[in-house]
Specification:
A 6-stranded antiparallel β-sheet has the order 1-7-8-4-3-5. A two-stranded antiparallel ribbon has the order 2-6. The protein has a single domain, classed as Chemotaxis protein chec, CATH 3.40.1550.20. Helices cover about 35% and strands about 30% of the residues. It contains 6 helices and 8 strands.
Length: about 150
């Protein structure tokens, strides 16, 4: 559903404008409502889910037994931190200050369309990610089957 990389600016109030290429899709498929939560595996990144996709993810994560520490951390970072945000009449969303601060997302950021969700990266964290190469030891069997 979403794909592509967009450099964006977050204003002084913490609002970001949804890129024009996504606005109709966000309105149509998401009812102009997204859910912002933490990326539990990578620093400097937030995840933005369409409301319907979020409900599926939330329910799946909440089914994990809380007794396992890894499950509990995932539940805290995804479900516990989830915040609904609505797209305003100017095509903007307000990213909560707590989420921006915890992820070190400042004025300059990068919005990635990642299929069923967006990823909002701090500019520095995104740069670090794209400059990394995939080590030979990180190549999985599934990756070897890809025809790129």
């Amino acid at each position: 559903m979403f794909q592509g990389e967009n450099s964006i600016t977050i204003d002084d109030k913490g609002r970001l404008a949804i890129p024009m290429a996504y606005r109709d899709l966000v309105a149509r498929e998401c009812g102009n409502r997204l859910v912002v939560t933490y990326n539990p595996w990578e620093r400097g990144c937030l995840w933005l889910y369409p409301h319907a996709e979020w409900e599926r993810v939330r329910d799946e994560v909440n089914r994990l037994p809380m007794a396992k520490p890894g499950h509990r951390q995932l539940q805290l970072k995804l479900v516990g931190a989830a915040t609904f945000v609505d797209v305003d009449g100017s095509g903007r969303i307000l990213v909560p200050a707590s989420h921006r601060n915890a992820s070190a997302i400042d004025r300059k950021a990068v919005l990635l369309g990642m299929g069923g969700k967006f990823e909002l990266w701090s500019e520095q964290a995104h740069l670090e990610q794209v400059q990394k190469t995939i080590a030979e030891t990180d190549v999985s069997e599934a990756m070897l089957e890809l025809v790129l």
